[in-house]
Structure formats: structure tokens, C-alpha cells
Amino acid sequence: MQILIRCVAEGDGDDVSSELFDWLVDDANARKHAAPELLPDTPEPDQLGTVAIIQLVLSGAFSATSLGVVIAQWREQRRAAAAPKITVTVEKDGKKYAVTGSDSDEIQQWLDNLDAA
């Protein structure tokens, strides 16, 4: 299964996908079973600078739920560092799912939607 991810900071609209990419590469399970790649992407009309998108090809050993756990850990680490909130948008099979908050119930709902897609 192929998944595309874009991460944008709230307020300034900065692309922070490369930060999540680095986190995924540092996670041995994600690196082994999701094969993360950072690709150039077309910026939104209101974005300046370069933007990137993360492409993952998930194996059976790394589900959308596993990906969600890694993303939740990354978001929690960013929140602890007083970084601005971000919106994570995941695209799977042409459908987009976005989550902005870091509430565990919201993330669980997001994972359920992604697994059901």
C-alpha cells in the first residue's frame, strides 16, 4: 500500500514534512517496513519556499496503525518542544485524511479511517 504524507505548521504554513521524514528514518521498524522517501512537491498557492511529501510503501508488517503510532510519537515530541501545531495530511488511494490536534481520540479516529480506506 502506498501512502503520501504532507505536514504543514499552523500559522505560518511552513512545510515540516522533512522533520517527520527524519523521524521515520530514525525508527528502525518504519525504515524497514515502510521504505520512506522524501519527494519534492508542488507548494500550495500561499506557501513560499520548497515543500516535500513523504512517500511510504507499507508492507504487511507495518500497518496504518503502526504509522499512526510513529506520527503520534513525533507530534508529541514536537509539542513538548513548544513547536507550532501541525496538520498532517495522508493520502491513500486518492483519498485524503487530515489531523491537526494531538488528542489521542482524534488520532485513533484518524487511524480507523485510514485502515478502513
Note the main attributes of this structure.
27% strand, 4 helices, single chain, 5 strands, 117 residues, 5-stranded antiparallel beta sheet
Characterise the protein shown here:
The chain is of the alpha+beta class. The chain has helices at residues 17-26, 28-34, 64-80, 104-116, and strands at residues 2-9, 37-41, 51-57, 86-92, 95-99. Strands 2-3-1-4-5 form a 5-stranded antiparallel sheet, with helices on one face. A hairpin with a 2-residue loop joins strand 4 (86-92) and strand 5. The model has no long low-confidence stretch (mean pLDDT 77).
Order of helices and strands: EHHEEHEEH
Query: pLDDT below 50 for ≥5 consecutive residues: which ranges?
Result: none
Mind telling me the C-alpha Rg? 13 Å
% residues in beta strands: 25-35%
**Span between termini:** 11 Å
Arrangement of strands in the largest sheet: 2-3-1-4-5
Class derived from helix and strand content = alpha+beta
- Total strands: the figure is 5
Report the major sheet. 5 strands, antiparallel
Tally of helical segments: 4
